[in-house]
Amino acid sequence: MKLFQEKHIYEFFQSYIPRIKNEIEHYNYTNVDEKDISIISNELYNRYKLKPIEISLENREANVTMIQIPSSSFPPGYDVTPGKKYNCAKVEYTYTLPKNHEYLMYLPYNFQINPINFETNSQQITFSYQTLYGSIELSDQVKEDVKNWIIEVQNKIEEGLIAINRDIEKYNNEIKDFIPNLLSQEYNKRKTINKQNQDLNDF
């Protein structure tokens, strides 16, 4: 998967709107008074508001393994034999995922990022750097290159999280207005229909 590039965050936010509408439209308004609208509204808001995402980038593990790389993957100038594979060091950085880690797949508004591939499970996210170094004991230069790369990745993660959390705050503010307005409309609609039914039965 690619960091912040699988889908647009707008699609994620929009998926909640039909669920909010459906719950309001099918709410049991029996014995509901106008003064109860704000209470119900707060309950719905607390249920559908989104929490900001936080990742501890200091809480990470680094690991080096050896991976076989085909000669075709080496750039010109390397002394390799066509068709042969070579053991090269691969560095992996693993971070603990927050519960709302699915946000990492979404592209925030007005945010650009070059593709950064990652692997994930329910608890961790891993970024990999494939070197062409032929030993598990890295040279100082290779280690410096790897560190510079992961620092750049972390900087992009921090920028993305700021953008995502800004969009989450905007979404929360929007539904904070949207929910009570729609709830009041539905309540008044039900109230009007009930009054009409009573009028029709008053003879």
Task: Present the secondary structure layout.
Blueprint: E1 7-8, H1 9-14, H2 17-25, H3 37-48, E2 60-70, E3 85-96, E4 106-107, E5 119-120, E6 124-130, H4 140-200
Parallel strand pairs: 1-4
Antiparallel strand pairs: 2-3, 3-6, 5-6
Helix pairs in contact: 2-4, 3-4
Order of helices and strands: EHHHEEEEEH
Distance between the termini: 68 Å
Summarize the main sheet. 4 strands, antiparallel
Total strand count, please? 6
Verbal overview:
By secondary structure, this protein is α+β, with helices and mostly antiparallel strands. It folds into two domains: 75 residues, no CATH class; 94 residues, no CATH class. It is 43% helix and 18% strand. It is built from four helices and six strands, in the order E-H-H-H-E-E-E-E-E-H. Strand 5 and strand 6 form a beta hairpin. The longest helix is centred in the C-terminal third of the chain and has 61 residues. The termini are far apart. The model has no long low-confidence stretch (mean pLDDT 91).
Key terms:
single chain, 203 residues, alpha+beta, 2 domains, 4-stranded antiparallel beta sheet, two-stranded parallel sheet, 4 helices, 6 strands, 43% helix, 18% strand, rod-shaped
